[in-house]
Amino acid sequence: MTETAETLAVQSLAGPSGIDPRGLRAPAIVAPMFLVSGPELVVASCRAGLAGSFPTQNARTYADLVQWLDRIREGLSGLPRPQWAVSQIVHPTYDRFEAELGLMTEYRPDVVITALGSPRRVLDAVHGYGGAVYADVMSVEHARKAADAGADGLVLVCHGAGGHTGRLSPFAFVDEVRSFFDGTLVVGGAVSTGRGVRAVEALGADLAYMGTRFIGAEESLANDKYRQMLVRAGVDDVTATKAVTGVMCSWLDESLADVGFGDAALQASGKIDFSDPHGEHKPWKNIFAAGQGVGSVDRIAPLQDIADEIVVEYLAAR
Ligand SMILES: Cc1cc2nc3c(=O)[nH]c(=O)nc-3n(C[C@H](O)[C@H](O)[C@H](O)COP(=O)(O)O)c2cc1C
């Protein structure tokens, strides 16, 4: 038996391992972000001692996804124990689901984070190779359903998060979920400093889920305009609205204003019309997402530098 097979056998016996905070420099996952997280961000996160992740839908085609996973595998080789996750849409209408799940069993990320549906669909396959399944949830009701479905971990996306944002305070959300769930708890929503990461632990959760703080990392897929806007923005410069995609999402005001949706226009219409197929305005592409922690982005830097800063703050806050 090879060493890898042995390790896997041990993992399978011990149950799904998931992301172990003790193996990280600070207990944080660099969260999956649409059109922002690619293989370089995942590799840089792991090399900097954090857990990396990306959403599969960022790879335009199945063939691209295979290439990305190869790049991750290659980029992580030589690291003693990199920890990474993939976020996968599990909604029945997502037609790449089965094919992607097959890739998960081949490339074996530590965690598959399920979005937009029940984690049940991936459990057997992911547990089969020794991985763990965490479900992304925004309400206690969904947390309970995911726990009942057998999720090993829950990602509680709270108020102030970038992209699709929750509405609950982490103070209330973590307490209620902890009363019925003793698996891994990950907390996201404006956690943007090492002090925030420490606060997540103090609440009784295991890992922080940090998106916005890393959009400006040099290894992300974000363009320059987006990066510069992030540096200029503070907490008063983001707006959560359903008007852009139909679900509550947090955007940079400056990018909304750029496409003609300043505050007043948003209030008046309540809905942005993207129906013109030749229109150049696209949510995520030139209407930029960011959460309330955006004030922590004060420069464009290599991910390693951002991670180092977070680790120093985290250790000082212990
Ligand atoms: C630009 C951007 C894109 C995002 N895209 C996704 C996505 O495709 N899938 C997903 O599960 N979460 C997505 N999120 C949410 C993050 O995974 C995470 O929940 C969030 O960033 C945490 O809050 P924070 O941005 O305040 O740190 C996105 C967030 C941002 C900022």
The Rg value, from CA coordinates, equals 19 Å
Order of helices and strands: HEHEHEHEHEHEEHEHEHEEHHH
Q: What share of the residues does DSSP label as strand, in percent? A: 15-25%
Mean pLDDT: 91
Compute the separation of the termini in Å: 42 Å
Query: Sheet bearing the most strands, described?
Result: 8 strands, parallel
| Global geometry | globular
The CATH homologous superfamily is termed Aldolase class I
Question: What is the number of beta strands?
Answer: 11
Multimeric state of these chains?
single chain
Please give the count of helices.
12
Poorly predicted sequence stretches spanning 5 or more consecutive residues: 1-14
Going by helix content, strand content and strand pairing, the class is alpha/beta
Read across the widest sheet, the strand sequence of neighbours is 1-9-8-6-5-4-3-2
Query: In the CATH scheme, what's the topology name?
Result: TIM Barrel
Broad CATH class: Alpha Beta
Helix content: 25-40%
**Count of the domains:** 1
Secondary-structure arrangement, i.e. CATH architecture: Alpha-Beta Barrel
Bound molecules: flavin mononucleotide
